[in-house]
Automatic annotation (TrEMBL):
InterPro entries: Aldolase_TIM, OxRdtase_FMN_N. Residues 1-85 form the NADH:flavin oxidoreductase/NADH oxidase N-terminal domain. It comes from Limosilactobacillus reuteri (Lactobacillus reuteri). This is NADH oxidase. GO terms for molecular function: FMN binding; oxidoreductase activity. The lineage of its organism: Bacteria, Bacillati, Bacillota, Bacilli, Lactobacillales. It comes from the Bacteria.
Length: 106
């Protein structure tokens, strides 16, 4: 699942807080969608989990979930070659490389 609801730094916005408050109610578990594990793999505005700076935001997701009686889990993700270069904070885009290309490079 992917939800385009985070701010430019992956933070919860007022609209996303309302969205998650409305969604967690009545569920036993909810998946926090497409959480970026490295800046080279950011494909769109979604939560980040690659710096200690992101811990408070992730804790807020958990708080919202727990307030509604649900458990929260995180979908760890990396957009690979589909990352948006304008969002990767100066990092190159990492992605899979075909084995045949690697053989030619050697």
């Amino acid at each position: 699942m992917t939800v385009y609801d985070a701010g430019p730094d992956g933070e919860l916005t007022p609209a996303s807080r309302k969205f998650w408050h409305d969604r967690f109610n009545g569920f036993g578990m909810w998946i926090i969608p497409f959480t970026n594990v490295h800046p080279s793999g950011i494909g769109f505005e979604s939560p980040n989990a690659f710096s200690e700076d992101h811990l408070e935001n992730l804790k807020e997701y958990a708080r919202i979930s727990h307030e509604q009686g649900a458990k929260a889990v995180i979908q760890l993700a990396h957009a690979g070659v589909h990352a948006d270069k304008s969002m990767t904070r100066g990092n190159g885009v990492w992605g899979q490389v075909s084995y045949h290309i690697l053989v030619l490079v050697r």
